[in-house]
Amino acid sequence: MANFGESGKYIEHVFPFLGVRFISVNDGIDSINKKGRSDDIVVPFLNLVSDAYCRDISIKIRSQLDIKRKKGDFVGAFAVYGYKRSKSNNNRLVIDELAADVVKMIYCWKLDGQSAEGIANKLNTLGIPSPMAYKKAQGLNYSTPFAFLGSQNINNDGSTNGKEGSTKSKTSTSSTKWSAMAVSRILKDETYTGVMIQGKVATPNHKVKKKFQKPTADWARVDGMHEPIINLGDFNIVQRLLERDTRTPAGGEAVYPFSGMARCGICGENMVRKTSHSNGKAYVYFVCCRRCKGSRITEDLLTQCVKAALKSHIDNIINLDRILQFIDDLPLKQDKVQKLDSQIVAKRAEMKRCEVLVMSLYENMESGIISKTEYRQMKARYNALRSDAEQDINSLGREIEDIINAGGEKNRWIEQFKIHQDFSELSRRMVVSLVDMITVHPSNKLDLLFRYRYDYERCISFVRAVIPTCNLNNT
Fold this sequence. Notes:
CATH topology of the largest domain: Hect, E3 ligase catalytic domain fold
Strand content: 5-15%
Oligomer: single chain
CATH architecture of the largest domain: Alpha-Beta Complex
C-alpha cells in the first residue's frame, strides 16, 4: 500500500481482527510465518518508503504538468466543444469545423438578442447534437456531471426523485439535448478567442482526491495558442450582455434593441420598457425601474436620438480615418518619430551621467572633498534626476508606439463603425456593438457613451500632435 497510515492500520489491526492473511511476495513477507520483531520493523518501513515514492512521483508529475500548462500545451482529457486535438501534435488544438460553426451561430444569435434558453431550443429544433452527444458520436468515451444533474428532479432539501432506472433514461435523453446551461458555458468560455486557460481546479495532494477551485491569478493562461473561433471584440460584447439584466418578451425570440442599455440619469438604475394603451393605440416608453420622477422617454424618441447620434459619430470617425490615412502618406509621421527618438537618446545620456556622478560621490567622500551629509544629499538628488529621466524615456517610448500604430493594426475598431455607415434601421447587434451606455436625463436629454471611446480620443490626440494646424472641429 502507498498510504503509510492506512496500510499500518490494516496490516496491524484490521487484517488480524478479520483473520486475513497478508502476503507480500516481492518483500518475502507472510503474516502467518512471522519471524518476530524484525517483521514489525520491516513492514512499516517498507510502507513508509512506498508512501514517499508515491509522493515523489506525484510531485514530479504535477510539476511537469504545470510546466506544460505554462507553455500553452493542452493537457486536458477532452478538447472544448469546437476544437479537437491536432493529429501532428497532441498538445495543440485545431478547429473542428462542424462544431465551430455551431459555436459561431450561438454567438451570432446572442448578439442578435436571443436568450440562452431560446438558443438551446433553436439548436434542438434544428436537430443539432449537444456537445456530449457530439463527442460520443466521434467515438470519445466522454461523460459530464451536468447531464446527470440536469436530468434529476431536485427537491428543496437537495434530495432527488425517481428510480434508478428512470434516472438513467432521463440522463441518456437529456445528454442529446441542448440546455441553457450548456449554451451559457460556451458563451462564457474564453478559449474560443484563442486563449489557452488551464489549471482552474486542483487537489491538495496525491492522497486527497477532493478538488477545489484555484484563484484566478493562479490559472495557467497563454494567449494565441490556437486559432480563435470568435473574435475578441464579439466575445467582450457578449460578456457585457451576460452581465446585464435583460428578459426576452413573452412570445418573442429576442430582446428589444435597447434592453439593458438604458440607464436612469437620476439614480443610475435600469430603464424598463413599458407599453400602455389609450384610444386603441399602443404607446411604448422607457421608465426608470425605481420610478424616478422625470426619468421617462418614448421608444420612438429614444430611437430617433440614438440614430442621429450614431450617424453623426460614424461620420466623424470616417473623417478621422481619412486624416489618419493622409498622415500615413506624409513624411510628418517619420519626422515626429525621429524627434522623439532623439529625445530618448538625450535622456539616456542624462541617466548615464547621473550614474557616473553617483559613483564618483563615494570616492570624493572618502577623499574628504565632501562630507557625509553632502554625499547623501547629492546622491539623493542625482538618483531623483535619473528616475525622472527614466520615466521620460518610458513616456516617449509609449508616444512613439502610439504614432507607429496609429492608422494601423490597433485601429481595427474603426471598421466596426464603418460597416454601419449606411444603416437605416437600428438592430440589437448594432446597438450593443457600437454603444456602451445610454443615460436618460429629465426633459428627454440623453448621454450616449460609445464603445472604443478611448481609441477615438487616442487618435484625435495623435492627429493634433502630428498636425497641430489640423481643424478637428468636424471630427
